[in-house]
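Posting for a labmate who doesn't have an account.
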Amino acid sequence: MRIAVPTVLLLLALAGAGFASYAFLWRKDPIAIRVQGVEHKVASGTTLAAAVQKFGLQPEAGDLLDVQGDVLRADEYPGRILVNGRVAPRTTELVAGESLRVVDGLDRREPSTSSYVHVPAGMPANPQFTLARTPGEQELERGRFSGKIVPLGFRATGPSRTPKAVALTFDDGPSQFTDRILAVLRRMHARATLFVVGRLAKETPQLVRRELAAGMEVESHSYSHPYQPPFDRQPHPTILREIRWGRGVLARLGPAPTLFRPPGGSFSPYVIEAAGSYGERIVLWSVDPTDWKPGMTASRIARRVLEAVHPGSIVILHDGGGDRAATAEALPRIIRGIRRRGLGLALIDPERRGPG
């Protein structure tokens, strides 16, 4: 049987129209999902694995930390990608309205044990304002894996004792004035404790090495010295990072710090705890001549220090953060005046002095 050509064309057209209608009825429109709180469109049938790749979702893993906050094992605790708040297989097909959220792994501290050690010579306060020490029992925490030890609480067993000495401390360096101050200290056979800014120490490591070679004590004054808002009001991750990074720089140049002076002297229970987690104790001061203020003269700086010092005083001066020529000029008079009062010059922690 023959079929006319027009008839064949008509049948083909009808078949094509029917297929198009079928395809239209079964076409899968894009669906809306939320990724990290933002709405996106994806093809229907998209799997979790495909969405992870499409949006570059990559949770950070948490580290296993020792009792001082240093990394024992990196990436020990993987993060997760949650679908509607729950873990789902990567083969899961996403449906409209679902929400994807990245949750980073948390850092965890190693397990530890604690014990008490009798300290007959006494312990300074935390935060420390003077050189006074109190005999008692120091609680120590020892990491199970690292074996590192950090101090915890302290129980006094007797009255405090104050040495006939004064501690000179310098903040905000190193800077172009640090060598001038070191020259005075060496010439007058005096020791001092320098609380250095980690970023500046990283930029001028030779100055920190000279401080240590001169027999000075070098401790931490944070990494970048944030002070707006005050340090104790900074976000907790920022506080931890400032302590950790500052510590890391100094540990590469010499002994790891055991003392921390927060920028501006701003502290809180959390700052004390955060520093303690890295094995560092807070040290402040009892005498402040405000040598950092513009217009301060050498004679005025020296007079303010000598009018206020007494046994056990901790004096704050500055070798960085501005023009410190007046401080360097005042230093010989300050040292002579302290010694004329029958007082010595001491480090905050005598065991932490450099080899010089």
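Reply:
Got it, the structure tokens are right above this. DSSP finds nine helices and 18 strands in the chain.
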